[in-house]
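Two entries, shown back to back:
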Amino acid sequence: MYRNDTIGPFFALLFSVALYLATYLDGKHIAALHGGKPPHEALSEGQIGLVAFATLFLIYALIGFFSVWLEGVELRPGRHVPTPGAAVTLVAVLLAVIEAALGGFFVRLMIHHLTVEPVSAAAQGAVFGAMMLVGAVLLAIYKKYYLGDEVLIEEEHSEVPW
């Protein structure tokens, strides 16, 4: 059967943390070379590369852990019908209400930005990012607890030698 383990994502997460730590220590080293205070630029080229690869490994680890949570460790043939409980439904409804409230707040923020005074881009991005995160959690809950799965096993009758 197909095994969906967490070994690869675990080591990717460890490697990601190590790269983030190396970026931090490199910044401390650069600051020490400049007399205790960092130079004018925020990140060096090496630090940008370390952060990029650390983020890559972090995303790989999160996708791996998320896959194990959604699909389980081992796929079993057959049809699987979910049975969501009242607690899951309550959480989904509360998240949907929070999503609608964030959407309304984002629209009011844009109207205020266009008519009264400019609103910082960080505030707009934070509200929109929160909307996207709540939407992603809602989709994950729907996939995990409300959407049925069907695993089909078929024999392969091809002429490929492997």
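entry 2 starts here
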Amino acid sequence: MRYTDLVMIKKLIIIALVSIGCSSGPQHPTERAERRFLDKYAVAAMESFQLRYLGLNVATSDKITDFGARFMTHQLSDVDQARSLVVKSAQNFIESVNSDTNLAKFLANDSFKLENLDYYVSFWDDKTDRPPKPYVALATVKNGMITYHFKCNDSEFLDDSANIQESFEEALTRLK
């Protein structure tokens, strides 16, 4: 089997997994509101940050406490570049959640805050492989912390021993 065939198969598997995750049964009213919001936000994320929406991050309940999404980009980014992208896009996500009147009625609190955000950005090269170090493979925002994950040297898996973590506030300070 040729390398190009393997790349095509990998892309088809990713598309199939995303499709399966997006086509579950009857939707709860909160889930409908979340999906409507994410459908709109996906366009803005692509236009503003070149982030492709992959899926909803948090299980739905009657009230939204934690909420977020998974995105991917083909922008190769070191930690400084990833920090800039993740901070700006996460802030935009939070602002967008808070300004969406349909979603607001499902928020557990008066407003959606950083502590409620569950946000992922996967970084892929043009062949849909994780980029090698020094590039970030995945950045996550959870509980007010940003974690930058890197690919193992000898596989496509993430190297947990190489993670870099900082608070969102530290990241904001570094961007100034």
